[in-house]
Design brief:
alpha+beta; Immunoglobulin-like; eight-stranded mixed sheet; five-stranded mixed sheet; 9 helices; 27% helix; 33% strand
Length: 461
């Protein structure tokens, strides 16, 4: 699930201080195509040196509406982000479309949606397979854009900068020998009754909440890359200098892939669920703390919300741009590398102000892990409309993070987190001229991530 500009969940106290001084879903077998939910069969070949990828998907779709369909629509989320976020060129292109082995015409509207007229009407209950070939460009991210200092600077800019800020947080990126693919393929548009919803609001938060679907995904990368994804790894085969990884996943909200060199894995089981923390060698101490937080959060939430229905949950260190703490998907959460900082390591060169704020930085990471694990329920398992009911995931997940602190450390710790994470953010927002607003309003009315955090995360929780 991709976020155009993830809400700012760093404790506002840190910024001010620095600035001013259920039942398991079996994944062992291939997805059962032909059920009512959609199914994606995707092959993607990544050219790391060329910074691009080629893909083909076969989408199985059943008309579960009440009226016949005369067209099928898909959304191109990477283009929505690059065009609306910072006005750059599109990065995802459609090469051709096939239905029943025949090439059919299609229309791309403003580079953001694909409209495919059907050769014959699809009646209610009718089943259709559509083949789409696509080509994507990877956005290269300079390592300097992923540092903790850059993240903190972006936070300050959102507080004192222009009211309406543009962001660059591409869903498909390459940085520091790490690849992140989120919403990298044409995604079925959502339907509102019998109408396809192809207009996506310009928002500061989630823009992608697809329907639950089954996935079979094959990805080809150089042999020295480790690949992690939302689905379960079923097989891997070698092909010349590359390796092909095959994943399956059932009843997933989306499919995210993170790949890179030099990753290590620490894991622990919570009942039948395998929790994995994936990190670079030099960040092992922080990576193991992330595993500890995630295991604790999963245990707390299962006792309150019900069983986590998937066999694994992966949290992986990734180079994300300033201001963006995570890219979350079904069963996989990419956390910003900026916060994998061992502030207590005597040999690590760090600015003095960062070392002096060690406790606050570590708390920011723990709170974000607790929040993101909660989003596996609120936003992933329990879907929502990101334009009309965005608070149903963010406010509930923020509240759940406070529950995590209460269960793990006691009521006083939860109150302390409420003060530093939520109340302080709202107070600073108002102090800098921000107006009080209702939580329930169209998401496009929010001007930046800081305002969204103050109103939806803080006030909403």
């Amino acid at each position: 699930m991709f976020r155009l500009a993830a809400a700012q969940r760093i404790p506002i106290l840190l910024i001010v201080t620095l600035w001013m001084g259920g039942t398991m879903v079996s994944q062992s077998a291939a997805p059962q195509f032909g059920q009512e939910r959609p199914a994606y069969d995707i092959t993607v070949d990544v050219d790391v040196e060329g910074k691009c990828y080629w893909g083909r998907e076969t989408v199985t779709y059943v008309n579960d509406g009440r009226r016949p369909l005369r067209e099928i629509c898909f959304l191109l989320y990477p283009n929505i982000v690059t065009l609306w976020g910072v006005g750059l060129s599109p990065t995802l292109f459609i090469r051709r479309v096939e239905i029943a082995g025949t090439i059919v015409p299609f229309k791309v509207h403003r580079f953001t949606s694909v409209h495919i007229p059907l050769p014959r009407v699809l009646e209610p209950g009718g089943r259709l397979e559509i083949g789409i070939e696509f080509l994507g460009r990877l956005s290269e991210l300079d390592p300097s854009a992923t540092t903790l200092a850059t993240h903190l600077a972006e936070q300050i800019n959102q507080i004192i900068g222009p009211r309406r800020r543009r962001y660059w947080n591409p869903p498909t990126l390459l940085s520091e020998e790490t690849l992140v693919l989120s919403d990298f393929y044409p995604v079925l548009a959502r339907r509102d009754g019998d109408r396809w919803r192809t207009q996506v609001s310009r928002a500061v938060e989630d823009i992608s909440v697809p329907r639950i679907a089954d996935y079979r995904v094959r990805v080809r990368l150089p042999k020295d890359f480790s690949v992690f994804a939302s689905g379960v790894l079923q097989a891997q085969t070698e092909a010349d200098t590359d390796r092909i990884f095959q994943f399956h996943g059932r009843a997933l909200r989306d499919f995210v892939i993170v790949a890179g060199r030099h990753y290590r894995v620490a894991s622990q089981r919570v009942g039948p669920v395998q929790v994995q923390s994936i990190f670079r060698r030099e960040d092992e101490r922080v990576g193991r703390r992330v595993l500890e937080y995630a295991v604790r959060a999963l245990t707390v939430y299962q006792s309150w919300f019900g069983p986590y229905p998937y066999p694994h949950l992966r949290l992986i260190e990734a180079p994300l741009p300033g201001g963006h703490m995570s890219v979350d998907g079904a069963c996989l959460i990419a956390l910003a590398r900026a916060y994998y900082v061992d502030v207590h390591h005597p040999g690590k060169p760090l600015p003095r102000f960062i070392r002096e704020s060690a406790t606050l930085i570590e708390d920011a990471l723990e709170f974000n892990v607790a929040y993101e694990v909660a989003r596996q329920w609120w936003g992933t398992l329990v879907g929502f409309d990101p334009e009309r009911a965005h608070f149903l995931d963010d406010a509930l997940a923020t509240y759940a993070a406070l529950m995590y602190y209460e269960r793990s450390y006691g009521p006083e710790a939860a109150r302390r987190e409420m003060d530093t994470q939520l109340k302080a953010a709202y107070r600073v927002y108002r102090m800098f001229g921000g107006e009080d607003q209702p939580v329930v309003q169209p998401v496009e009315r929010f001007t930046n991530g800081f305002q969204y955090a103050a109103i939806v995360h803080a006030k909403g929780a």
